[in-house]
Amino acid sequence: MTLPRPPMRRTSGTPRRSDPRRHMAETEALAGFGRWGWSQDRGLWCSEGLRNILGVVATDVRPLLRRIPAQQRHMLIAALRQARADQPPVAVEFRLRGANDHWRNCTAWIRKDADGGLWGIVQDITALRSMSAALERSESRWEIALQSAHQGVWDSDVETGIVYHSRTWRTMRGMHPDGDPEDDHGVWADRVHPDDLPRITDLIARQHSGELARVHMEYRERHRSGEYVWISSLGAPVEWYPDGRPRRIVGTDTDITEQKRAEETMVRLSHRLELALEVSRIGVFEANLATGELFWDARVREMYGFPTDTPIGRTDWEGCLHPEDASGAQQRVAAAVENRCGYESEFRIIRGDGEVRHIRTKGMWYLDSLGIPRMLGANWDVTDEVAAHRDLQRAKDLAEARNTELEAAKARIEHNALHDTLTGLPNRRYLDQVLSERAERAAEKGDSVALLHVDLDRFKQINDTLGHIAGDAMLVHAAELLRRHLGPADFVARVGGDEFIIVCSYGGGQNRLIELAGGIIEQMRRPVPYLGHYCRFGASIGIAARHGGDVDPVRLMIDADIALYRAKARGKNTFEFFSEALQTEAVNTKRVADDILQAIEQDEFLPYYQPLFDAKTMALSSVEALARWRHPRAGVLPPSRFLSIAEDLNVVTTIDSKILRQVVDDHRRWRASGLDVPSVSVNVSFRRLRDEQLVASLRELSFEPGTVCFELLESIFLDEIDDMVSWNLEQIRDLGIELAIDDFGTGHASILSLLKLRPSRFKIDRQFLDSLTTSKEQRRLVGSLIDIGRSLGIKVVAEGVETFAQADILRDLGCDILQGYAFARPMSAGALEERLRSAHWLKAS
């Protein structure tokens, strides 16, 4: 590269002349450009400045063009052609490789002169391009930094009102980063939240007036999404008018929406914390472990009784500790400090006024930003809680004591629920559980289970004669006796007034069961002394047994009950095993019972009548009504076919009532038709005499006094008639109904009972007449009974007279009335009416 020549130094004392060519060369060198020209006559010429730029000495164009990149070389040639074609001048920028292979950036201007020649200027812009690139890099780095900081730049020309906005400024508002029609100030003001606009407008006006220089403001601006965002704007003047007012203001905007949300969240949390501290009455403390200085908030000071303006130190806290709690509280704090950890503690303090308070504290050791160790924590005044806990503990202790009592009571209740209170034996509920367990075990292991149903005989008589206290004593005695006879695996329960159930396992044979039942019966029949009396009762036992999967608790109970029924029917004080024959009999009994109930509904029970005759005159004395059942399939059945079952069904009173009503109707009809039947007698059960409605039902019947007689059908303990029976008997007499005693002489009635009952007659039982014709002793006995009746003014009736020979003997002995098959069998009301009309009685059957 040819450099411009340095200026010639003038000789001292020689005047300096002006040189235009030299001045031009210096100007080209300083400005970095060179000139060139071309004409037909002169050809191509270059100034020294251009040769320096091009780095050449000669002016040959072709080597010069080869040092320019091809594309730019074509552009330069095209520009030369355009100039020769008289087109407007153009500037062409190109790169030129110098002699030292360094590239230069150049700009060429080409013009055509009036003579048709070309001339132009070439400027070296390499330094300018370097400066421009550096500036662009600097601006890029600044833009990147602002974008990284999420700050948008704005530049406001106050005079023109033009505002420049950076890309970040636009994007934080949801605008397109390269421009938006809503960038002018008026539209921007419309986006500001109405509540913030007055304040923002005032700050801007004050800054434009020169009152404020640097302005920082936070406000809400509507985002393109429609939501408001928080903007932090900081602006300051960079150019001023002569009067000091800003002419140009530059600033940055930052989106602080998340910061504001975080601040709002922090405020909410702070309020919640304050509210929680207020509600929970928690106080906060902080200790500087290096200096011993303490900070207590108002709540902690209130707890300890310290005024709010008094400095607090560690010694103040230690001085408040209760002597009994001080050592432990201090040790826990010291351990937390030593181990740099948290701690929890509860202790008592003594306030200045002497009041003792319970404090609970929790603290945490930490290092602050300066490396100073501190303890931060909270205190609770738990005095009321401690008192409440103490009260709760007392209540808990009391509740536990009561619970113990309740558990004992529950155990007693459960025991009572499963045991009989009198005997202490298990009850029916307990029995059901044991039977169920035994059945399950038998099904699993194939065991045999036997059940003994024990019923005490004559127990009712003890209750009725000596009272229920004596009866209870006998039940306790019986329970103890049963316990003594049982094995370890046996079980006994009381299931009724005088009924017990024994459950036992056995090997399958009946020997043990026979031995067990026999031993119980033998012990039960022994007399038991009680208050100077000897109580005698016995036991009847029904036994049922099953094996393995056939063990069914319900079936066992039914089978044992059937066997017990048979044992009592055999005369009591014995035992009976269940069998299929008993099952069949029970089924038949059930069928008969169902038929009896249906018969009552269908009025199938009716009276049959057997006449009674005067022993001397053989005239009709009266008729006895005997109950019969007109069975729809079996015909007319006597009481022996249904009476015992009816008694078990407790319907004998109902049958008596129906029979009595028919008897009264029949007798009234006979009298109305002229048939002479002096009176009718009806058998009445002892249970019927206990009926409270008996007298009322009799008053509803229409009969004449002296025409009806009640015969006491059962063997009754006449010496022990209760008040209800006595009252009914008196009322019966008042109604004109006579009383008679059936089966006299069987041992159930005494002379005193006859005097007390005052019957109009009694009947000698038929068993006394069996050997009357052959036995003198029997005749004397019957004669004695007749003498008793005559001496007491009671007529004597002999029932069961089978022959006239018996009738003659009874007449000779003084018997008053005769009844039996020798004279007439029981007959229906219609048959009796025919006999009454024919008057043919005295024909032996």
Content of β-strand: 25-35%
* Helical stretch tally: 28
Fraction of residues in helix: 40-55%
What is the overall pLDDT average?
85
Characterize the main sheet.
8 strands, mixed, barrel
Low-confidence stretches: 1-15
Describe the structure.
About 25% of the residues are buried. The longest helix has about 35 residues. It is elongated, with a radius of gyration of 69 Å. The chain has about 850 residues and is α+β, with helices and mostly antiparallel strands. Strands 24-25-27-28-29-30-31-32 form an 8-stranded mixed β-barrel. It is built from 28 helices and 32 strands.
How are the SSEs ordered, and which strands pair?
Layout: H1 20-31, E1 33-39, E2 43-46, H2 48-54, H3 61-66, H4 70-84, E3 90-97, E4 103-112, E5 118-124, H5 126-148, E6 151-157, E7 163-165, H6 167-171, H7 185-191, H8 197-208, E8 215-222, E9 228-240, E10 246-255, H9 257-280, E11 282-288, E12 293-296, H10 298-304, E13 312-313, H11 314-320, H12 326-339, E14 343-350, E15 356-367, E16 373-381, H13 383-418, H14 428-445, E17 448-457, H15 459-466, H16 468-485, E18 491-494, E19 499-506, H17 511-524, E20 528-530, E21 533-535, E22 538-547, H18 553-569, E23 575-577, H19 580-601, E24 605-614, E25 620-631, E26 635-637, H20 643-649, H21 652-672, E27 680-684, H22 686-689, H23 694-699, E28 708-712, H24 723-734, E29 738-744, H25 751-757, E30 761-764, H26 776-792, E31 795-799, H27 804-813, E32 817-819, H28 829-838
Parallel strand pairs: 22-23, 25-27, 27-28, 28-29, 29-30, 30-31, 31-32
Antiparallel strand pairs: 1-2, 1-5, 3-4, 4-5, 6-7, 6-10, 8-9, 9-10, 11-12, 11-16, 12-13, 14-15, 15-16, 17-19, 17-22, 18-19, 20-21, 24-25, 24-32, 25-26
